[in-house]
Amino acid sequence: MASDLQYRRVLLKVSGEALMGAREYGLAPEMVARIADEIQSVHVLGVELCLVIGGGNIFRGLSGTAVGMERAAGDYMGMLGTVINSLAVQNELERRGVTTRVQSAISMQAICEPYIRRRALRHLEKKRVVIFAAGTGNPFFTTDTAAALRASEMGCDALLKGTKVDGVYDADPHRVASARRFERLDYLEVLSRDLRVMDASAISLARENRIPVLVFSIFESGAFAKIVSGRGRYTIIGERG
Ligand code: UDP
Residue 104 forms beta bridges with which residues? Predict the structure, then answer.
């Protein structure tokens, strides 16, 4: 019930790779469905939900530069990838009866709304899930930074980063058996230890706006719903205190 909620308005960031499953590229429908199920289970609790979906499963600007492309051109391609992913997630959510709006930082009137802050806030008040597409709309940024930016603009209580693992570790737990998991981290520690859970500009923005970042496994069924209810397993990045 709404009164048991720890967080009333959150932004969930999911990387494009999470939608890829075992594929090397693009979208795995079963993964999109799984993530939509998780989102739906939080929506029914009455949480106001913002989503930012990455685009790494389709294109990354840096892969463009690796083959001689201008960075900005590659980045725009990456941003278009996030729009494709956003439409895929929108479609799965709407199939489950969840009302959504996609707002893109790069105007694409025929397929989604342009990003308008006050309009997005209104959607949230009406319990529509708002999916922010095309990142920040600027090259040289990432969707992590877009997530921190939109979470700040929307006045979110927390930024949740759904990953493959249940928190932040000091090494990749899939490769290093002795990797240590952190229960809690300070924003500055994430930056100074170069933990790479999110890029530095995203962490700085979250810190400036005092938004806690919770890192959890989006693949563990029910984990997202537990977190918004103040339970579950995650690493929280915040101010030391
Ligand atoms: N991108 C960008 N500006 C933004 C957000 C994204 O230029 O504000 C581009 C950038 O090229 C990036 C790509 O879109 O590599 C895909 O986004 P990201 O790498 O953040 O996706 P994820 O790793 O979360 O799947």
Answer: 114, 133
